[in-house]
Structure formats: C-alpha cells, structure tokens
Amino acid sequence: LKNFATKDDLKNFATKDDLKNMEDGMLTGLDKILGKLDKMDKENIVHDHSHKKIDDLFGDHEKRIKILEEK
User: Fold this and answer.
1) Which helix (H) or strand (E) holds 53?
2) Nearest to 34 by CA among 42, 58, 14, 64
3) Which DSSP letter does residue 3 get?
C-alpha cells in the first residue's frame, strides 16, 4: 500500500512563486555584494597607485640624497 501526499501535506512545501521570490531576493543581495566588491576593487587600485607614486617620489629623494652625500 502506497501513501500519497494530501493537499494538507503539500501546504508546507514551497510553490513556484515562493521559489521565484526567494531567487529574486538572493539575486538582489548578490547585486549589492558585487557592487561593494567593485567599489573596493576600484579603491584598491587608486590606493596602490598612490603608494606607487609615493614610493617613486621617495626613491628619487633617496638617490638625490646619496648623490649630495657623496659630494
């Protein structure tokens, strides 16, 4: 004898609309996360460029100081 689910049993399961709403919510959340990651990536690029500029500036100073000290 096989037991089949009744309508009352099936009320506890998600419908297609429930799953679609859940998917939409997850995609919206992922969009927010990707937006933040993109912003952080751009900020890191600017930050790294600033440090490279500073390193280049100080590297040049070190070379100039060494030349002056040798005189």
Assistant:
1) helix 16-70
2) 42
3) -
This prediction's pTM: 0.57
Residues 7-46: pLDDT tens digits? Answer: 898 888 999 999 999 999 999 999 999 999 999 999 999 9
Q: Which two tokens stand for residue 39?
A: 């912003």
pLDDT at 60: 78
pLDDT at site 55:
82
User: Two tokens at 19?
Assistant: 């799953």
Question: What is the separation of C-alpha 25 from the centre of its chain, rounded to a whole number of angstroms?
Answer: 18
Q: C-alpha distances in angstroms, 61 versus 2, 3, 50? A: 86, 84, 17
Cα gap 71→54, rounded to integer Å: 26
- Tokens representing 55 are 């390193």
Nearest to 44 by CA among 36, 32, 55, 30: 36
